[in-house]
């Protein structure tokens, strides 16, 4: 799950609710806040996640992941290459890599990704440069070819998460389906229920 401040609530407040609703991973994704603020907010999120056995991942910034002793980092195709991220992070940390095409998935696999974030599965307003929705076929093609956990991302909510899992994803990553909801805990719970059911 990615997090952004939303509806006057802090990321930490939303994270508390999301964890109560059943999310298993939280990603710190803040491209705007000053670095000092990101580090302060990140330390609080990390402590919250640790206290609940939830994985804490930092988006883009390997330096921030190292400083926060995060569980890992998520990098895209234009970010620091996954293999370099791993060198900086050290062993025992997760490196997630984004892919929107089979070629990008090949690059991610060559960079020894621990998991792939594949999308945007559906149209999203959260990431302006996400590109066109790609649907669920690539998830099936990747999971047929490699034994790697894939999470679908982009425009996913409780209403459309099941086909993403049925295509082969191990989970879904969402922003607005939790952060922009009036009741993030209920939204997370509904989503987790749908994912659990579809994984059966
Ligand atoms: C789980 C997950 N999957 C994909 C992304 C997108 O990463 P990226 O392509 O680098 O885009 P930004 O998130 O950095 O805008 C992600 N963050 N998480
Ligand atoms: C970070 C990211 N990467 C691909 S789509 C996306 C945004 C996901 O946000 P939402 O779940 O609100 O569509
Ligand atoms: Mg990125």
UniProtKB/TrEMBL annotation:
Pathway(s) it belongs to: Cofactor biosynthesis; thiamine diphosphate biosynthesis; thiamine phosphate from 4-amino-2-methyl-5-diphosphomethylpyrimidine and 4-methyl-5-(2-phosphoethyl)-thiazole: step 1/1
Protein EC: 2.5.1.3
Pfam families reported in the protein's UniProt record: TMP-TENI
Cofactor: Mg(2+)
Note on cofactor: Binds 1 Mg(2+) ion per subunit.
A single GO molecular function term of this UniProt record: magnesium ion binding
GO cellular component: cytoplasm
Keyword list, A-Z: Magnesium, Metal-binding, Thiamine biosynthesis, Transferase
Catalyzed chemical reaction(s): 2-[(2R,5Z)-2-carboxy-4-methylthiazol-5(2H)-ylidene]ethyl phosphate + 4-amino-2-methyl-5-(diphosphooxymethyl)pyrimidine + 2 H(+) = thiamine phosphate + CO2 + diphosphate; 4-methyl-5-(2-phosphooxyethyl)-thiazole + 4-amino-2-methyl-5-(diphosphooxymethyl)pyrimidine + H(+) = thiamine phosphate + diphosphate; 2-(2-carboxy-4-methylthiazol-5-yl)ethyl phosphate + 4-amino-2-methyl-5-(diphosphooxymethyl)pyrimidine + 2 H(+) = thiamine phosphate + CO2 + diphosphate
GO terms classed as biological process: thiamine biosynthetic process; thiamine diphosphate biosynthetic process
Class of enzymatic activity (EC top level): transferase
Record: residues binding 4-amino-2-methyl-5-(diphosphooxymethyl)pyrimidine: 27-31, 59, 98, 127
Gene3D superfamilies: Aldolase class I
Thiamine phosphate synthase/TenI domain segment(s): 8-178
Binding-site residues, Mg(2+): 60, 79
Family label: Belongs to the thiamine-phosphate synthase family.
Main function: Condenses 4-methyl-5-(beta-hydroxyethyl)thiazole monophosphate (THZ-P) and 2-methyl-4-amino-5-hydroxymethyl pyrimidine pyrophosphate (HMP-PP) to form thiamine monophosphate (TMP).
Entries under PANTHER family matching the protein: THIAMINE-PHOSPHATE PYROPHOSPHORYLASE, THIAMINE-PHOSPHATE SYNTHASE
Protein name: Thiamine-phosphate synthase
């Amino acid at each position: 799950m990615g997090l952004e401040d939303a509806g006057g609530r802090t990321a930490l407040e939303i994270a508390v609710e999301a964890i109560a609703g059943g999310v298993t991973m939280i990603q710190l994704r803040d491209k705007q806040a000053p670095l000092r603020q990101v580090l302060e907010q990140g330390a609080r999120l990390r402590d919250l996640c640790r206290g609940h056995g939830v994985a804490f991942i930092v988006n883009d910034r390997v330096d921030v992941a190292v400083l926060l002793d995060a569980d890992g980092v998520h990098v895209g195709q234009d970010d620091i290459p996954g293999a370099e991220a791993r060198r900086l992070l050290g062993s025992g940390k997760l490196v997630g890599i984004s892919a929107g095409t089979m070629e990008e998935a090949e690059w991610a696999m060559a960079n020894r990704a621990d998991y792939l974030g594949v999308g945007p599965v559906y149209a999203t307003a959260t990431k302006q440069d996400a590109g066109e929705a790609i649907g669920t076929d690539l998830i099936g093609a990747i999971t047929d070819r490699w034994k790697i956990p894939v999470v679908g991302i982009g425009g996913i909510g409780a209403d459309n998460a099941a086909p993403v899992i049925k295509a082969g994803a191990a989970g879904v990553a969402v922003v607005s389906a939790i952060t922009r909801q009036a009741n993030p805990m209920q939204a997370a719970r509904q989503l987790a229920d749908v994912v659990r059911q579809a994984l059966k």
